[in-house]
Every structure is written in C-alpha cells, then in structure tokens.
C-alpha cells in the first residue's frame, strides 16, 4: 500500500514539477483517493531502486543532450531490451520512463511477452 502511494506521489511531482505546500497536499490527496488496481504487490526496495536510477539518470540526460548539440548523431537503430523478471505495472512504467528520460533513447512499444522496443540514436560509425 505505501509503495503505491509513494509511486503515485513521485509521478505527481514529476508531472507537476512543483514542491509547494499546496501541491504536496493535492498530491497526497490524489494518491490516497485514487483507487488501487488489482496488481501484484510492489516491494518497496524495488521501487526505491527504480527511483534512485531515475535520480542518477539526470546527469546522464544532460550529458547526452550536450553530446547531441556538439556532435552529430545521424545513425538510428531499434533494439529489443528484455524486461526484468516479475515487474509490476508500476515498475514497468518507471523502467519505460527511465529509458525515455534520456535524449538518445525512446521506448516505442512494450511487448506483453516481456520486451521493450527501444529507438536509439548514435554517432556515425567510422569506416
């Protein structure tokens, strides 16, 4: 239960980008009032690890944005990445958010059989 509330609050704060007292009260209210779906329980440890990965991805996102500005990235590729085993829908959402958060990668599709279809830009390979 607490993991779902934390996940909802994290998503709320990422969407609003506002940590005012009023927004925190609204976010907590929304997190508590939204109905909880019938999903398998999320372990708090996995949720906190996913949030920590997102925090660590912020410098990487800035670095990739600067690379894209200074160096051309003209090659594109679509790769398939395996979803970690036993992921709940909330953790799958955070995985997709993490991949899409960085400028060089975007999740195009989540396949129900356990794969992410990821579009990635990269520098031209030297001959």
Show the helix and strand layout.
Elements: H1 2-16, H2 21-33, H3 44-70, E1 75-82, H4 89-101, E2 105-111, E3 115-122
Antiparallel strand pairs: 1-3, 2-3
Summarize the structure.
By secondary structure, the protein is α+β, with helices and mostly antiparallel strands.
Per DSSP E runs of 2 or more residues, the count of β-strands stands at 3
Structural class: alpha+beta
Per DSSP, what share of the residues sits in E-state strands of 2 or more residues? 15-25%
User: In angstroms, what is the radius of gyration?
Assistant: 17 Å
Outline type: globular
Number of helices: 4
**Low-confidence segments, ≥5 residues, pLDDT <50?**
none
Distance between the termini: 54 Å
Strand order, sheet with most strands: 1-3-2
Mean pLDDT: 85
Question: Can you describe this structure?
Answer:
It is a single chain. With 127 residues, the chain is an alpha+beta fold. The protein has four helices and three strands, in the order αααβαββ. It has helices at residues 2-16, 21-33, 44-70, 89-101, and strands at residues 75-82, 105-111, 115-122. It has a three-stranded antiparallel β-sheet, covered by helices on one side. A hairpin with a 3-residue loop joins strand 2 (105-111) and strand 3 (115-122). Helix 1 packs across helix 2. The radius of gyration is 17 Å and the shape is globular. The chain starts with a helix and ends in a 5-residue tail after the last strand. The mean pLDDT is 85.
